[in-house]
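Record 1 of the preview.
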Amino acid sequence: MILGSSRKIFGPMLAGLLLQLCPALAIDDVLQLADSKSFYETYLDGPIQQRGGAVVGVTVVGVRLDSGEPTFQPEQIRVPLGHGASRPESLCLRMLSRDGRYFARGQYRTSGMAADSPRLDFRSTYNSKLAAYQSGDVAVIFTAGSKTCDDRNAAQLFVAVVGSGRSGERLMVQVRAGGARIRAQLGLNDKAIGSAVLCEKGPGPTVGFSHECAIDLPKYLPTDNYQLSIGETGAAGSILVKTFTLFLARVS
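->
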């Protein structure tokens, strides 16, 4: 009788203590799906054939802070929302593997979220397939300001932190483009931060994305909306630049 009573008393106390010691377990620190129909994913078993023809224009398919994690861990994905910064009501998630075989799309609620860098409630039916990918082989991006999560012309981009390791001082931008040279430049208040970097073509199949741009970040990075400019040099030497609004904040 005494043992049974103590279990009833200490059970809730222990659960509360665990949530205090491990805030990542608290539901308030996890971004939840907007509803049961807000998530879609697919995985193709066979290899994807590279489409013929030239790729016109540049599409940003992934923006992440490098955490140094070698393997892809979707259950550890976080999104830095900043401390005290204004937040959208929801965020759209898009994932695309380099080989084009895995794709995911989801809409997550951010209203009422207290955590500065909440973790993503990500439950895939393809965990065994995703475990075979390296961290840099899957592009992850969060967007806000579009009417639907299918709209790629989002008003604002948010970075992803992939992995349980501490995020580093490097911003990794994954883009899909043609054979032209691609450069990336970060700016704040229309002033350049550092020099433009030359984006490198990735290894292996490049169905999902073709280039990766590694941008070193300054040690002091104020929470703000930045300008991410991607320049594509054409065959005639002309440069076409597309600029995106990118929200950046330190990972807490």
